[in-house]
Design goal:
305 residues, mainly alpha, Membrane-bound Lytic Murein Transglycosylase D, Chain A, 3-stranded antiparallel beta sheet, two-stranded antiparallel sheet, 12 helices, globular
Length: 305
């Protein structure tokens, strides 16, 4: 679960609000320069305004200077949950030695932040707003329970407007070079929705695993207390499917839609099965949404929700 603002941070923010309330500095500008592309790419994929993501990162991490950011690559104060099995960082917060997640890099922290918002039902109203409506998002985050600080919307809006972060929402292509959002480095197909990677053991909110050398359907069926037939059905695998080391398979039923992105552009070598696995969508649902009865052509655009 995400960290709410602690008493000490609230005091700092209220003190700042009472004085100049300036969120512009060389440190903050450097932070924005470092992460604006990450925020824009996540906006394409998850439909969260880049301005909101950056402003939250600035506030939560002190523009990248907090110990969580510098020692754990955790820019959003994301705490450990009961199903979290990764590295941990302990520090006093709401209670002594609170547990926080450790990330391999900041981009992984940004991705987990996006998944937190997209995969929890009580944040669903936010995604009815336009990505250019940063004020609506700021107020909506508070209304949906993201933070307990009553001044949270005003803080976000102040950070955004003082640093002109809304420019990334309005004209994202202007701030990304073509190579920043090509798929697989190709020059002919541009897609603003790169496929998601597994974060904390799930894709699209569905528990999944990476197949290791030596894994078999029999062994996995015993490990997850499911029949071999059930595992194959969950993953839309044919009866004679052979597991491949490194591939992702699901141990719980996939979903009918992927709400964090609108569409996927088909690349060379992709199939309905591989795409459905990449997004944690049932193959039959993917076919139904796109009125398909055969494999899609390279370059075609598949609707995901």
């Amino acid at each position: 679960m995400f960290r709410r603002f602690s008493v000490s941070l609230i005091s700092i923010f209220i003190a700042a609000a009472a004085s100049a309330q300036s969120y512009r500095s060389d440190v903050t500008s450097a932070y924005i320069e470092r992460f604006y592309k990450t925020a824009i790419r996540d906006m394409y994929e998850y439909k969260i305004p880049a301005s909101i993501t950056l402003a939250q990162g600035i506030l939560e991490s002190g523009s990248g200077r907090s110990d969580l950011a510098t020692e754990a690559n955790n820019h959003f104060g994301i705490k450990c949950t009961s199903d979290y099995n990764g590295k941990k960082f302990f520090k006093d917060d709401d209670k002594k030695n609170d547990c926080f997640r450790v990330y391999a890099d900041a981009a992984e922290s940004y991705r987990d932040h996006a998944l937190f918002l997209t995969q929890r039902k009580h944040y669903a109203p936010l995604f009815e707003l336009k990505t250019t409506d940063y004020k609506g998002w700021a107020k909506g985050l508070k209304k949906c329970g993201y933070a307990t600080n009553p001044k949270y919307p005003e803080l976000l809006i102040a950070v955004i407007e003082q640093n002109d972060l809304q420019r990334f929402d309005k004209n994202p292509e202007k701030y990304l070079k073509e190579d920043d959002y090509k798929i697989n480095g190709t020059t002919d197909v541009i897609a603003p929705n790169p496929t998601p990677s597994a974060v904390n053991g799930s894709i699209n909110g569905v528990e999944c695993i990476t197949v290791k050398p030596g894994d078999t359907f029999y062994g996995l069926s015993k490990r997850y207390n499911k029949s071999i037939e059930a595992l194959k059905k969950i993953n839309d695998f044919p009866e004679d499917y052979v597991l491949k080391a490194g591939e992702t398979i699901f141990v719980k039923k996939k979903k009918k839609k992927f709400k964090a992105a609108k569409y996927h552009v088909v690349q060379k070598g992709e199939t309905l099965l591989s795409i459905s696995q990449a997004y944690g969508i049932r193959k039959r649902s993917l076919m139904k949404m796109n009125k398909l009865n055969a494999e899609p052509a390279v370059g075609s655009k598949l609707v995901l929700n």
